[in-house]
Design brief:
Number of strands: 0
Helix content: 55-70%
Number of helices: 10
Distance between the termini: 30 Å
Structural class: mainly alpha
């Protein structure tokens, strides 16, 4: 008969998943283990002992991602596809007011095509968090789409840092902000990051992580 997994063991499994995801997603980062070969990092799955040691080195220099609030840990542990969808939601929520004072059904349908129905539904539900826009945006433009996504990653970086996560863990996400806004309203960005992270991002049946 299979032994039931106790609460303490479930917590350990959850923490291990968060730590592993944080390590694999962070990249080497400037000034951290620069001498580690990229191919070696790509083979961490086959070397759990090395994976554990690399985590310890980085955690000693920064913080433990598993000690963050639950919603932050869930965000870190999402698959890359769902993380990107969440980032699109965060960026679109931030810029939603730039769509205009009234968004009709045709415009909503167009936004769904551009950003995906899942990301759009989350942004619609959180549109009240969008700060006032100085100008309207043409969301169908590729440059604007890249801006929205880049700002979504920036929003998550601001929020995770506010939660206490060391920047040493955020190198990969920071690298995706190259085409984002020069600056974001910090209070609005943190509120949006927290709200988007509370969404239960689900993996479709049969989807790869």
């Amino acid at each position: 008969m299979t032994r039931a997994i106790r609460h303490g063991e479930l917590t350990m499994l959850k923490d291990a998943e968060i730590r592993r995801a944080a390590l694999l997603g962070a990249g080497c980062g400037t000034g951290w283990l620069a001498d580690i070969d990229a191919d070696l990092l790509s083979r961490l799955d086959a070397t759990p002992r090395l994976q554990s040691r690399l985590f310890e080195v980085r955690a000693d220099l920064g913080s433990d991602p598993a000690c963050l609030p639950d919603e932050a840990g869930r965000l870190i542990a999402l698959s890359p596809r769902l993380q990107r969808e969440a980032a699109l939601s965060a960026g679109l929520t931030y810029h939603f007011s730039a769509a205009g004072p009234v968004v009709d059904r045709r415009e909503i349908a167009a936004l769904g095509v551009i950003f995906g129905e899942g990301a759009l539904m989350v942004a619609l539900g959180l549109a009240h968090l969008s700060p006032p826009a100085s100008a309207l945006l043409r969301f169908e433009d590729e440059a604007v789409r890249r801006l929205v996504e880049a700002d979504g990653w920036a929003i998550f970086c601001l929020w995770l840092a506010d939660c206490g996560l060391s920047p040493r863990w955020l190198h990969a996400w920071e690298s995706r902000q190259g085409e984002g806004s020069i600056s974001l309203i910090r209070s609005a960005a943190i509120a949006i990051g927290a709200a988007v992270a509370t969404v239960r991002w689900e993996h479709p049946v049969g989807a790869e992580r």
